[in-house]
Write a structure and sequence with these properties.
7 strands; alpha/beta; seven-stranded mixed β-sheet; Aminopeptidase; 35% helix; 260 residues
């Protein structure tokens, strides 16, 4: 298995979509040490985000499980070591060999080096760029028959902008939120709110730190209302509708992006 842990599709224009937790595969040397089964891993991964990333001409898709290396965490926390790193889950049967740990961090470094180059090229070509940072999150953590998490604190879509320069990029963020709320989603308009459940992870923070004058990344977290998070079974019609909703936002977002 190659050590490259992402796929890049390069298209035209300044819009990029990323799905860094879409991957499910594990590197061969990690299987013997992994204590979680495939379904347990899938529960914390972000299925279908790679499919939704097709909203943008340029796409960066993670191809490996976040349990191999988490591209949305700081480097020192990118490989889960203890249950507290991973929602209380015991990830490894035994001590992960130093060689495996370092190999995962080397992959992490290659990813950030490659995406730095990508964003530098986009900034040079277009002056600036915008990233749809796509994720999902669980809301039935008490078990398959347990209650859903309180809707007040768990919107269908959480928009994380904790590291966004709201003074500069506010019109772009507002255009995204407003148009996503306007979309005629099956069963009713989406509950879209900002910084309720999450404020965005290391990936958008890094983009804003490295490209403070030219890059804006909007962290977009869909609650797993579109699937059974315990069995992994999706509602295909809702998965497709989410993709349609994201596409619906693009004209207004890009218009606002051109004006800031």
């Amino acid at each position: 298995m190659t050590d490259q842990i992402w796929d890049l599709h390069r298209g035209d224009g300044p819009l990029v979509a990323t799905a860094v937790h879409d991957g499910h595969a594990l590197r061969d040397d990690l299987h013997a040490h992994m204590s979680l089964d495939e379904l347990q891993r899938l529960r914390e991964e972000d299925p279908h985000t790679g499919q939704w990333a097709e909203v943008a001409p340029t796409r960066v898709i993670g191809t490996r499980s976040r349990f191999e290396v988490d591209l949305n965490r700081p480097r020192e926390k990118a490989v889960y070591r203890i249950p507290e790193d991973a929602w209380g889950l015991k990830v490894w049967k035994d001590e992960l060999p130093v060689e495996s740990f370092e190999r995962s961090l080397a992959q992490y470094d290659l990813f950030y080096d490659a995406t730095r180059t990508l964003f530098q090229e986009l900034a040079e070509q277009h002056g600036r760029f915008i990233v749809y940072d796509l994720h999902t999150y669980n809301h039935r953590r008490l078990g398959p028959d347990g209650p859903e998490a309180d809707a007040e604190g768990n919107p269908q879509v959480n928009i994380g902008t904790g590291s966004v320069d709201r003074v500069r990029w506010g019109p772009v963020v507002d255009a995204f939120i407003e148009t996503l709320r306007e979309f005629d989603f099956p069963g009713g308009k989406l509950d879209v709110r900002e910084n309720v459940k999450f404020q965005g992870g290391n990936w958008p923070r890094w983009i804003h730190s490295e490209f403070p004058d030219s890059g804006v990344a909007i962290a977009i977290e869909f609650k797993k209302f579109f699937m059974d998070e315990w069995s992994g079974k999706p509602d295909e019609s809702q998965v497709e509708a989410i993709g349609d909703a994201l596409r619906f936002t693009v004209p207004a977002v890009m218009d606002a992006f051109k004006r800031v």
